[in-house]
Amino acid sequence: MSTELRGTARYELLSLICVINKVAIMVFPGRFSTGCLRCRQRKVKCDETKPGCRRCSIYGKPCTGYTDQFHFRHTRVKSESAAPPSPPVRQAQQLRRQSYEYQPHDVAVVPRAPEVSYEHASLCYFVSRFVSPDPADGFPAGHLSFLPGIYDNTKHGLLETATLSVAQMAAYNKFGGDKFKVQSYQNYGKAIRLLQDAVQSEDQATDDKVIAAILLLCTLKDINGEEAGDPSAHAPGLFYLIEKRGHQQMATSRGTELFFLALIRLQVYAFLHEDDAYVDPGAITTMWGVFDPLLRAMSFMSKTLSLRHKLMSFYDPSNTALPPSTSDTPIQPDHASVIQGCFEALDDFHAWDTEAAAYWQSMFEGRGVPTALGQAASRAPQGYDVETACTIILIRSARLILLMSMIAYIPDMADWGTLVLEQEVDMTINDILACVPYALGDVRPDGQPGSVQHDGAAAIMIHQSIRLVASCAYASSDQLEKANEILSRLNAGIGIRAAVGVRNEDLNHTRWAREQDELRARKAARWITSPSLVGEIEESPTTESPDILYSPLVFEEPWEVTG
């Protein structure tokens, strides 16, 4: 080879080596630049300050920002000489790849629904259905209208615990769910312990919250149907606390409403247990009733129960039979005075019906006014508001107890005299049943159909009165049917288990129940012996003058009083 050819080959070889070295130098070092776009363009080191780097600011140019591109490296291909995976491993890898391929990567996460608060749900239901709205005119005969104002949901004191207990039981009757029932009994036990601690303190014992808590625990008995309507576990303590609070409690609307509700509970206890020791705590209704017709109406039940117990005291308490309708035994002076007191009490009921109308019109504008006996059913088109209807039902209940006690225990009364009282019984029951649609909100005061959320508040107040009608010996078949329909609604529709059911032993096993059984037998015997007299009396007008109805001349013979 000539010298010229060898030089040319050497030159080409050196050129090839230089190209290879240059390519090798330009190989990607393995790291991407993360600086801003301007610093990368200027090929200077960027301090990567966000949102704009300081080097660009010093340079006097606005920073153009950073790139949002992501760079991915290719994984190195495995050597083909590597051993192939075993069939189970290969199958597992294939399943993972398939699941990854079909898995949606941009699915929105569905938030979990919040768990239901049993306490909040039960409280909302109880307050909306069993608590009366706060009356604007100060009418005191509502049901727990003060509760939302004194309930503190940030605390777990006596009132709050007692409220939760009755609210959860009400929710259980409405919605089911054993958790409501379990929590109700747990809170009841806790409330009893807190109540025991509260009554030990002189400062706390007479507080409004303590009285309200006791009333709520009594309401629980009505709702769950255990010891239906029987606040025997709380009556002595409630009587003591109400009496200790004295007349000062009547100075506020809350104190007055608490007193009314407590008095109703105590009177129910006195009737069921034939014990009138707790009917008038502190003689408040007797003293204040002189000035306030509403309080005087509440005192009628106290007076009625006292007269009833005096009538029964003239006979052997151990004897379950009623006294004979006629007797050869002369009437003793104290017995005659009690009988006279019964007729005077009936006259007081009649006078109150007349006086209450004017009082309602002057004090409670816009409310339906009470009417005379037997006229409640003919109120259309002007009816009653919820609270007035409940009040009339309670007052008529006291009248019914007095009438039935007189029929049962006053001897030597002429047949026509007994039938006159029976006519009053019929009118009293008609008034009670006629007021129920207004009390439950089915009919508005203007006589038009309506509905209210708080029908449970009225149901708590009147269900014992309806049970009284349903057990009355002189209620007609139509009246009994209506009363039982109402009780079924209070039980199934509203959740007042005390209205009906197998746990009504508190009323079925009382002296009242035994009296009604014997009065039914006595009434049947009179129909057999004097059918003409019965027909003549029943066809007579029911609007006869009250002066005739209340006269003691209904006795066959003048009272023979022995000294």
UniProtKB/TrEMBL annotation:
Residue spans crossing the bilayer: 12-32
Record-annotated Zn(2)-C6 fungal-type domain positions: 35-64
CDD domains: GAL4
MF annotations from Gene Ontology: DNA-binding transcription factor activity, RNA polymerase II-specific; zinc ion binding
Listed InterPro entries: DHMBA_Reg_Transcription_Factor, Fun_TF, Zn2-C6_fun-type_DNA-bd_sf, Zn2Cys6_DnaBD
Keywords attached to this entry: Membrane, Nucleus, Transmembrane, Transmembrane helix
Pfam families linked to this entry: Fungal_trans_2, Zn_clus
Family matches, as PANTHER family: TRANSCRIPTION FACTOR DOMAIN-CONTAINING PROTEIN-RELATED, ZN(II)2CYS6 TRANSCRIPTION FACTOR (EUROFUNG)-RELATED-RELATED
Name of the protein in its database record: Zn(2)-C6 fungal-type domain-containing protein
The organism of origin for this protein: Podospora australis
